[in-house]
Specification:
Length: 141
């Protein structure tokens, strides 16, 4: 439950692992990293390689360099010679991962979790929420 930076990293690292099925449910309707603290021009205190996956799985499709490639900004980034990226760009990277990963589900409130011995997996009962928090439907995964 929850899709903050730690669980987003876990979801990204778990993606593509053979035989592993994951689901990350988040009540918020979209990912926002440090809302209100993305001061213009402020950079991360760590180099870009401290993204969600690079130090564990540098060939992951969810690494920061792949994000830049999908945005057609890899070469400009390379020639700028910046190791510390802007916080707003890191937020955009995190939002990109959160929307592209198939295992992340935003706007879902988890109501119950139970072990299903027959399936060998957890069953998650959740409520799908609208942008204003209204109930749109229920789901069992």
């Amino acid at each position: 439950m929850g899709a903050g930076p730690f669980n987003l990293s876990l979801a990204a690292l778990a993606d593509g692992v053979p035989g592993l099925r994951t689901a990350f449910h988040e009540q918020r309707t979209a990912f926002h990293w440090h809302p209100g603290l993305l001061i213009e021009g402020a950079t991360l205190q760590v180099p870009f390689l401290a993204d969600l996956v690079s130090l564990v799985e540098p060939t992951s499709p969810w690494c920061y360099l792949n994000y830049l490639k999908t945005r057609r900004r890899l070469f400009p980034f390379y020639f700028a010679e910046r190791l510390h990226i802007h916080r707003s760009e890191f937020d955009d990277y995190l939002r990109w991962v959160s929307t592209e990963l198939p295992s992340t589900h935003f706007g879902h409130r988890v109501d119950a979790i139970a072990w299903d011995a027959g399936e060998g997996a957890f069953a998650v009962d959740s409520t799908r929420l609208g942008p204003d928090g209204e109930t749109l439907g229920r789901e069992l995964t």
